[in-house]
User: Fold these one by one.
Assistant:
Number 1:
Amino acid sequence: MNKPKSRESKPVTHKTKKPAKQTRPGWDIYFINIAKAVSTRATCLRRRYGAVITKDNVIVSTGYNGAPSGMIDCLEAGKCTRKELQIPHGERYELCHSVHAEANAIIRASADELKGSTIYISGCDGEGEECVSEPCMMCKRMILNAGIFKVVYSDGNGCYHIINPSDWLRNRV
Ligand SMILES: [Zn+2]
Ligand SMILES: [Zn+2]
């Protein structure tokens, strides 16, 4: 299993394709692919993200982005305001009604489960193309306070990054 290096400033890139000789996927590939499957449940037209939280390689929680329970989501409304206005990635989240995948996964896990856990995030755009799934600044703050120890997210190119959330502290996310 790949361990994040706490003193590393840049995320490390790993290939999601398994080596030719390996007969079964490693844990990180296994769970990032499950996160990808979870993302298909998302209700936003612009981006669909899935998150999986694991502890000791056991899934404790999953989440995908969507409107809060009982609120009309982008799919039902037939439009996404951030998509319509072509808001750049990471900006104007107040225009979006979604609770993010990471947040939904975190609120469904207990504090004990979250401490020292790993979160896997994968997503795709409206056309189904895999996209960079680095958490937004609000989710980064939540991940830090949840005590999550390792973050694995797809890089949008069939690879994934592994990062220790403490690396975010330097730039004050
Ligand atoms: Zn939307
Ligand atoms: Zn977020």
Number 2:
Amino acid sequence: MKSLALLPPNGPKRPEFKYSTQIHHQPFNFGILKTPEPVPDGEDSLGDYKVLVLKKAISINFRDLSMLFTLNNNLKQSPSGHHFFGSDFVAEVVGIGKKVRSIKIGDRVIPNCDYFIKPMRGVSRKGIPSNRASMAYEFLLEDKLIKIDDDLSDEVAASISIGLQTSYAMIRKAKLKKNSRILVTSGSSNTSLFIIETLKMKGYLPTILTSSQNTFKALKKDGNEVVLYNQLEDIETALRKFNGLNNGFDIVFDPFSDVFFEKLLPFVNVNGKYITCGLYKQKPEFIALNQPGNASLGYLLAHMIMKNVQLIGNCLGNTKDLLNGIEDLKSGRIKVNIENIYQLDNLGPFIEMAFNDKNRMGKVVLKYA
Ligand SMILES: NC(=O)c1ccc[n+]([C@@H]2O[C@H](COP(=O)([O-])OP(=O)(O)OC[C@H]3O[C@@H](n4cnc5c(N)ncnc54)[C@H](OP(=O)(O)O)[C@@H]3O)[C@@H](O)[C@H]2O)c1
């Protein structure tokens, strides 16, 4: 089988090499490696509970870019090395440990990113099961996988674990009221697209902030309330124009709080909630699209305290969040936004769309089979 891999940015060109590009002005090399089926490790005490999976498709998240930078920097010191990367996938089960009960050979599975699952025999099982989704074969723990049935295509199944589980957890924590006024930032981001879908299913019409013309048009066409801004400095004017002066939001869903929190706090109503799952500046190399604000932490906290605003951090979700999301997908109550689907032999366009295309609005999927 074949696997997508990150190759050293400065090493000699190897037979596996397929594509070079710049991301945030840094050089990256990608290649395709032949990966034989691994032999189970008999000494691994957790082996009995493990499942061997063969990937059918993967998709990219913002966190994968952050990890790519770490791996790329490591590879500068090992020019003959390589790294696999990625976290969302769909795979076929090709082997199971003696004590695996819930999954059988031939099942299709996706990651279960449950962040609250208890350790088993002292081993933590919190969070995302794989940071090497692009590796064709992988041994993973049974309870870090969710079996999915044929109702969901490979491209959809490969796109949902992180985004669906996180967005359902964020909405659960928001404890929405009937008339809650809701703002969602970064409308093109996958996390926000999942949040928007789910809010609409629940009967809410959120206001969506985006810097992308493409997303502005697409979401407006779908009947959403969308506010377009160009530079971060324009957000206040854009929101006031759209929203009036005295009409704030009860809930803000924000995947990039280092970018937006300071700008949006004045727009959060008394007793409002600000729910965030992430930051933009995850690596020093990431070029800031906008200059960070200069308000002190004390000023922001005072503002929050005086308005009784709750700031809620959220990492991933629980198993029920993912299962609820899958049920809603299967019944057609929500959909997954997929921007494009690529095959392994079309690597360049996949990499560009996943990591460099500013017009992207949805998941970018790479199919292995
Ligand atoms: N902790 C968790 O459990 C968890 C889970 C999922 C995601 N996250 C976090 O959530 C965030 C979003 O992840 P994702 O995979 O959904 O992202 P994504 O799909 O890659 O989002 C890309 C979009 O985000 C907006 N954006 C990116 N950089 C920006 C900047 N500097 N300034 C303003 N807007 C910017 C743009 O939206 P517009 O074009 O609409 O302006 C851009 O099109 C990341 O921080 C990620 O780590 C965390």
